[in-house]
Amino acid sequence: MTDETQLAPTTTPVTPRALGRRQWPLPKLADPAAPLLEVDNLTTQFALPSGAVHAVDGVSFRLDYGEALGIAGESGCGKTTTALSLVRLLPANARITSGSVRLYGIDLVPKSENALRRYRWREISIVFQGAMNALNPVQRVQDQIAEPIQERLSVSPRAARKRAAELLELVGIPKKRGSAYPHELSGGMRQRAMIAMALACDPAIVIGDEPTTALDVMVQAQILALLERLRDQLGLSLILITHDLSVIAETCDRVLVMYAGKVAEEGPVPDVFTRPRHPYTQKLLSAFPNIRADRRTLDVIPGSPPDLRTPPPGCRFAPRCPLAMPVCSQVVPPEVTFDGVRVACHLYPAGSSGQPVPVPLAPPIAAAAPDPAGESVA
Amino acid sequence: MTDELLRLDGLKVHFPIRSGAFDTVLGRSTGVVRAVDGIDLAIRRGEVLALVGESGSGKTTTGRVVVKLTRQTAGRVTFDGRDVSHLWAGPSLREYRRRVQIIFQDPYETLNPKQTIGDFVAEPLVVGGGRLTVRDRAAKVARALESAGLRPADQFATRYPHELSGGQRQRVVIAGALVMDPELVVADEPVSMLDVSIRTELLRLMLELREARGLTYLFITHDLSLAWVLADRIAVMYLGKVMEIGPAERVIRDPHNPYTKALVSVSPTTTPPSSGGRTRRTILVGETPDAAHVPTGCRFHPRCPLAFERCRVEEPPLFDVGAGQAAACWLVEGGRSLPVLPPTGQ
C-alpha cells in the first residue's frame, strides 16, 4: 500500500525496498479517503473525415490501492483508448467528450496539458507493447531510464544514474547489461527495461498495454511473474490491457470485459472466469484455446465487431449474440450488479436472480484423422 | 503415392556469420548460426503436424526449406517418395511448388494493397499454372475464394485488401494457396495476428479443407495450445533440434522432455489460479541462447532443472517412449518417465 507520509524528493540512495514508498507528497487536493482511481462514464471520441467514432462510450470502473485490474477485449473494442484517456496520451484527433477520471478524488479530465504533466509518470505510468518502438535505439538503456528520473524528480545526474541501476536490478537486468543499446537486448530484456522505466518515478499506478503480447510463452511467464513480484514488493496498482484472457486470469484481481466501446461485464476474476454471465464473455472464454480442456472444442463468434461510426442501436453485441431477443436490438442494456459482478445484458434485468444463462456453443471441430497408433517416429 | 508425403532426414541449415563487407567478399565467416541442426521428421498424407517452438527454435527455417525458400546445408528432403533436396530450378521445381504451398503469418504484408483480391489469387496461376484461358483462370479463382469461405466469390474478387477485415484477408491468403490445388500446405503462424473470435473460424476452415481436399499441413506455431487444438502430432523444437515428437494427446498430457514439460506448465490458460485446477508452473530461468553459441551436450542443459553430468557432454538422441512418442532426454532412455520438475521462480 502507498505510504502517504510526506517526503521531499530525495537525492539519497534508494534501496529497492524503499521504492514502494512515495518519494514526494500527494497532490494538494488529494482526498486520502477517496479510492485510488475512479473512472465514471468516460466517453472518448475520434474525429474522422467520415464521422465521429465513439471508441469509448460511457465506461466506468474503479481501481483500489494495490489492486490489479485487467481490461479485456478484441481489437477495436476501446481498451487501449480507455487506458490512454486516463492520462490523456491520445492522438490529436481524439477527445474526451464527457465523464471523469478521479485520481485520489481529483478529476484529471478538466486539467490543462501542463497540469497533467505532474501526474504522468509520477502517478500513472505506461508500459507499451512494442518495446523496440518505444525505446530510443541510439541511447544506452540505463541512460534512457535515468533521463526521466533526472527531469521529473529534479535530482543530480549521478543520483539518477544510481537509481537507474537499482531499477535495472529490480527488474532482473544484470547491471552490466545496462550499458547496452536496445537492439543488443532480447525481447524479454527490452520489456524489462520498459518496466524499469515505468517504475522510474515511483508511480502509484502502472498501466501495461499488451505488455507480453509479442513475447515467447516462457518469457511471457517470466514477465508476468516479475509484474506480480513488483506489485507485491512496491504496493503497485496495475491496469493490464490485453486481448489475452489468460494473462488476466493469471495476474489480475478484477476483470473488465469491453465490447465495442462499452463495458460488457466487470467483476472479480474468479467469478467472471468461472461463471461468466454476458454471452460475449462466455463466447470469448470458450473460443480461447486451452491445453487443459478437450481438444477441438473451440467456440466461434460469428460475424465481426460493429463499425463504431454507426454502432447498432440497443446492445452492440446483439447482431452476433446467439441469445439475442427483440429488445436487444432496440434498447441499450443498463449495467446491473449481481454479487459484485456488473453486467450489461438484457438477460439479466435488475431484480432478476442473475443466474448465468449458458449460450449454445459451436459443435467440436472436425474429428481427428485416424490415429495410426503404435507407428514409431521417423 | 506413398502414405508418407514429406520426410526430412538429418536436415541442417547453418548460416555463416560474416562480420563485414570484407569477409563477405572473401567468403570468410567468423562463426556459424546453427538455425536447424539435424532434424528428422515425417508427415503422413492428410495429417496435421505442428512444429512448435519459441523464437529462434528453427521452426520457420524448417518450413522455408520445405517450400524451397532456403537451402539446406545438409540432409535430405523427400516428397511423395522422391528426393527433392537438390531441386532448385526448372519445371520440376515449378511442379513441386504447385504441390507445396505456404501461408505466412501477416496477411497485411502478404497482400499487395494495390492489387485486387482476384488478381492476387490468380497470380500463382499466371506464374506457374501452365496455359489457361481467361475463363478457366477466373473459374479456378472463384473456386478457391469460395473454398476459403469468401462467398460470393465474384464480389470479393474485385475488392482491395483494405476493404476486408483481418480474418477475411487471411482467408484471401489461404485462397491464394488453394488455387494451385496443393497437397501440402506449410502454415507459418497463420492465425497469430488475429483476434480469438476470428481465429477459430480459420482453424475450422483449415480442418474442413483437409477433409474436402485431402490437404496435409505442416503447422508452424509458437503457441502450444493452438497446436493442441489443430494438430494430430506435435514436434517441439528447441535451438534447431526436435526435443520431443508424438501424438498431440501424448505430448501435451504426458510430456517426456523437461523442456516440453515446462512449456506445457506455463501455457496460458483461462482458469484463474485461485479456482484450483492449476498445475504447478515451472518457469525456466534465462532465455534461449542464440544459435551461434549452441551449448555442448544436450542443448537445453543450461536451463534444464533436471540436468546432470551426462547432459553437459553428450547429446541425447530421440528415445522411443512408446505409442508413437519420442523424446530427446537422457532421463527417458529405456522408456522411463520424467521425474517431477521443481517449480522455479524468475
Please specify the SSE layout and strand pairing.
The complex is a heterodimer of chains A (378) and B (346).
Chain A: E1 37-48, E2 51-63, E3 68-72, H1 79-86, E4 94-103, E5 106-107, H2 113-116, E6 124-127, H3 131-134, H4 141-153, H5 157-170, H6 187-199, E7 205-209, H7 217-234, E8 237-242, H8 245-251, E9 254-259, E10 262-268, H9 269-274, H10 279-286, E11 335-338, E12 341-344
Parallel strand pairs in A: 3-8, 3-9, 6-7, 7-8
Antiparallel strand pairs in A: 1-2, 1-4, 4-5, 9-10, 10-12, 11-12
Chain B: E1 4-17, H1 21-26, E2 31-44, E3 48-52, H2 59-66, E4 74-79, E5 82-83, H3 90-99, E6 100-103, H4 107-110, H5 117-128, H6 134-147, H7 153-157, H8 166-178, E7 184-188, H9 196-213, E8 216-221, H10 224-230, E9 233-238, E10 241-247, H11 248-253, H12 258-266, H13 309-313, E11 319-322, E12 325-327
Parallel strand pairs in B: 3-8, 3-9, 6-7, 7-8
Antiparallel strand pairs in B: 1-2, 1-4, 4-5, 9-10, 10-12, 11-12
Question: What does the model show?
Answer:
The complex is a heterodimer of chains A (378) and B (346). With 378 residues, chain A is an alpha/beta fold. Chain A folds into two domains: 16-252, P-loop containing nucleotide triphosphate hydrolases (Rossmann fold, 3-Layer(aba) Sandwich), CATH 3.40.50; 278-344, no CATH class. Helices cover 25% and strands 21% of the residues of chain A. Chain A has helices spanning 79-86, 113-116, 131-134, 141-153, 157-170, 187-199, 217-234, 245-251, 269-274, 279-286; strands spanning 37-48, 51-63, 68-72, 94-103, 106-107, 124-127, 205-209, 237-242, 254-259, 262-268, 335-338, 341-344. Chain A has an eight-stranded mixed beta sheet with strand order 6-7-8-3-9-10-12-11, sandwiched between helices. In chain A, strands 2-1-4-5 form a four-stranded antiparallel beta sheet. Chain A is globular and about 65 Å long. Chain B has 346 residues and is α/β, with parallel strands linked by helices. Chain B has one domain (4-254): P-loop containing nucleotide triphosphate hydrolases (Rossmann fold, 3-Layer(aba) Sandwich). Helix content of chain B is 34%, strand content 22%. Chain B has 13 helices and twelve strands. Chain B has helices at 21-26, 59-66, 90-99, 107-110, 117-128, 134-147, 153-157, 166-178, 196-213, 224-230, 248-253, 258-266, 309-313, and strands at 4-17, 31-44, 48-52, 74-79, 82-83, 100-103, 184-188, 216-221, 233-238, 241-247, 319-322, 325-327. Chain B has an eight-stranded mixed beta sheet with strand order 6-7-8-3-9-10-12-11, sandwiched between helices. In chain B, strands 2-1-4-5 form a four-stranded antiparallel beta sheet. In chain B, helix 6 (134-147) packs across helix 8 (166-178). The mean pLDDT of chain B is 89. Chains A and B meet through helix 6, helix 7, helix 8, helix 9 and helix 10 of A and strand 1, strand 2, helix 9, helix 10 and strand 10 of B.
